[in-house]
Specification:
With about 160 residues, the protein is of the alpha+beta class. The chain contains 3 helices and 12 strands, in the order ααβββββββββαβββ. The N terminus is likely disordered.
């Protein structure tokens, strides 16, 4: 039942994103005081920092959905200093990030442990995260990462 709810939620996020409403997200975040500047002058989203975000699923623009087989295994954690770290169903990883005023995300290179795990969803997860170009939050406080070229969205919850 929870998988159905997640898939429906991701579909709703996709419909909102595909209608072009993402252009106003940066302005909405600023108006709601979600956007602040850190000491480097980069814009950050305080609700991203300090939380462990758990992957709920991905919906692609062609309506393909990917749901993690082990949802608690896939995480993202953002620091105020511009560091990102996480876990998959096989390895851990880290890197750098910055978020612009308009929600535009820039990632640095990721480093990862190198264990092999059969049937892991790690490569799909990391490939999609590395191809994110925008970040925002839905009304429920879920973290939504938008993929480049309007190709889909990744949903995380606390």
């Amino acid at each position: 039942m929870s998988v159905i709810i997640i898939v429906v939620f991701i579909a709703v996020v996709y419909m909102v994103v595909s209608k072009g409403e993402r252009k106003d997200l940066g302005n909405n975040l600023q108006e709601n005081n979600i956007v602040n500047n850190n000491t480097n002058g980069d814009v950050i989203y305080p609700t991203v920092v300090g939380n462990v975000w758990k992957w709920q699923g991905i919906i692609m623009s062609d309506d393909t959905t990917i749901v993690p087989a082990k949802p608690d295994a896939f995480t993202l954690t953002f620091s105020q200093e511009g560091q990102v770290s996480g876990t998959t169903d096989c390895n851990s990883f880290s890197g750098t990030y910055s978020v612009g005023e308009d929600g535009l995300v820039t990632w640095g290179a990721f480093a990862s442990t190198k264990m092999f795990c059969e049937n892991s969803q790690e490569s799909v997860f990391l490939d999609k995260v590395a191809n994110v170009d925008r970040i925002f939050f839905d009304e429920a406080g879920n973290l939504i990462l938008l993929l480049k070229f309007d190709s889909g969205a990744i949903v995380f919850s606390k």
